[in-house]
């Protein structure tokens, strides 16, 4: 079974602030613009909805209003996808071609590649287990994580330090080409974020 990452460039703090904002105007905009998408999601998850899971718009409204949330753990996925919808609305989708689809421990392998280049401030595996913002309930799928502006700045400094060390020694860490490609895609995400003050990255694994 394969997984995928959806990665967004956005103002992390402003996006998190949408949770519990009670912004009914935002809900109206989403309903008007993405009604067909909401209906498609309801059709896809029709069985779960029959078992009591909230519909897509109901979950979205709960996220924006900070609750109420279903007590059933099996229904929490809808709130994760609702938060992802908010990120897709307010952010810019980033190229994820090296991560979609992926299998097995690929995210961990890429993290090892980042660490081999001295980058420890960020982790792509964080997008799998980082968790949704409070007070949203925990759900395994979709996984969610974020890279804040501070983490990104530190990671890019770590990368530049490794580049300088490689230039001086003439020896680069031995990495498989596909890992190098994935790491460089991560560097690209971070450089896009650094160009916009206050911006970071939020990613979802599903």
UniProtKB/TrEMBL annotation:
Name all DUF7691 domain ranges. 1-205
Q: Looking at the Swiss-Prot or TrEMBL record, what is one Pfam family this protein matches?
A: DUF7691
- InterPro entries per record: DUF7691
Q: What is this protein called?
A: DUF7691 domain-containing protein
Query: What organism does this protein naturally occur in?
Result: Streptomyces osmaniensis
């Amino acid at each position: 079974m394969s997984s995928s990452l959806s990665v967004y460039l956005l103002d992390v703090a402003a996006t998190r602030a949408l949770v519990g904002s009670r912004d009914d105007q935002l809900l109206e905009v989403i309903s008007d613009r993405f009604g067909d998408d909401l209906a498609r999601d309801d059709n896809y998850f029709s069985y779960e909805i029959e078992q009591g899971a909230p519909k897509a718009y109901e979950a979205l409204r709960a996220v924006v209003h900070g609750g109420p949330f279903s007590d059933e753990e099996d229904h929490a996925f809808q709130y994760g996808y609702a938060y992802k919808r908010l990120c897709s609305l307010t952010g810019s989708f980033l190229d994820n071609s090296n991560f979609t689809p992926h299998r097995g421990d690929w995210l961990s392998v890429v993290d090892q590649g980042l660490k081999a280049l001295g980058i420890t401030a960020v982790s792509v595996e964080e997008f799998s287990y980082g968790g949704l913002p409070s007070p949203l309930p925990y759900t395994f799928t979709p996984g969610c994580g974020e890279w804040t502006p501070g983490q990104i700045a530190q990671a890019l400094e770590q990368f530049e330090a490794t580049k300088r060390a490689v230039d001086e020694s003439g020896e680069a860490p031995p990495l498989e080409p596909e890992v190098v490609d994935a790491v460089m895609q991560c560097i690209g995400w971070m450089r896009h974020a650094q160009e916009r003050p206050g911006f970071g990255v939020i990613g979802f694994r599903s």
